Amino acid sequence: MSIASHRLFSRNDLIGFAVLAAIIFIVLPLALDTFRLNLFGKYLTYAFVALGLVLCWGAGGILSLGQGVFFGLGGYCMAMFLKLEASSPENTAIQSTPGIPDFMDWNQLSALPWWWEPFHSLTFSIVAVVVVPVFFAFIIGVAMFRRRVGGVYFAIITQAIAAIMTILIIGQQGYTGGVNGITDLRTLKGWDIRTDSAKEILYFVNGILLFACLLAAQYIRKSKLGRILIAMRDQEDRVRFSGYDVADFKIFVFCVGAAFAAIGGAMFTLQVGFMSPSFVGIVPSIEMVIYCAVGGRLSILGAVYGALLVNWAKTTFSESFPELWLFGLGALFIAVVMAFPNGLAGVYAEHVAPRIARLLRRGGVDLPTTPDKTPAE
Prior knowledge:
Blueprint: H1 11-31, H2 34-59, H3 67-86, H4 102-106, H5 122-145, H6 151-171, H7 173-176, E1 187-188, E2 191-192, H8 196-222, H9 224-234, H10 236-241, H11 246-272, H12 282-295, H13 300-320, H14 325-339, H15 343-362
Antiparallel strand pairs: 1-2
Helix pairs in contact: 1-8, 2-8, 2-11, 2-12, 2-13, 3-5, 3-11, 5-11, 8-9, 8-11, 12-13, 13-14
């Protein structure tokens, strides 16, 4: 195996990362007004989930239909801090019990639950955004992968967990805000996150965090761990017979996917200003898989483009055809799976990139004699 194959970034990777960075940090901010830019900031939060699915599903062969659970847990951890800051005794003086969130007062709670207390601290909340979903993913992973539960059975179980979590959140209305979720989030340590300037700053923070996760995912894919994950996906028994503990690798990558989704959920809460169980259940979890499938489940950059494209199409169709957009979204998913199983990244690698290479050769541009066949990931 050549030394070049171990490089973190191939030539195509560098070009792909540079193009995506230009789109996120230059093109979109210059081309869109604040409202539309905030929408794309929300779309970027979904890209975190799609990125985690590339590692779990694309590299590891683990199809999870419950990533909305981790997205929601991360979002709720951030929302709890923001809600407590908005529920100071001065802001809630008209309540029966000042100093607690309004939905608790409506449900006749007279004191803040003990497990809400640590979320007065921003540091604790940021740590909890990652630790709580990862710990939950670890429990699921140990329970499932140690018993060699996989494939469609694992997908169905994660889907059931998403449904259970939604019912639990809605049922515990006095502690979670119920079906409405945690709303009316205003400030972060006194900084008003509702202003246009705040939305723009949060958009760029979103982009920076997304690229940090992209770099982490790229490192995993290019490392020995990444090669083991791909081997597990293709020939799990051979990897097991070679002496590797397959369950440990599955648990690890599942936890990484949960961490990425949780970061996206926390940024969603900041970007949009609320979190509700509608982002935790089965439907949003399946939509997150669609983002990954459309972009390309084998490409980390494709997952980002998939999240942006599908959500842009969803917004456009829902504005123009409110009664038909769900059918359009389903048709898009079916068309991609049937015609382009590797998503947009596969279309680029198989059809676009070779044509670009031929055009460059005709123009006299010198290319390597052995072109890098690794698609932009």
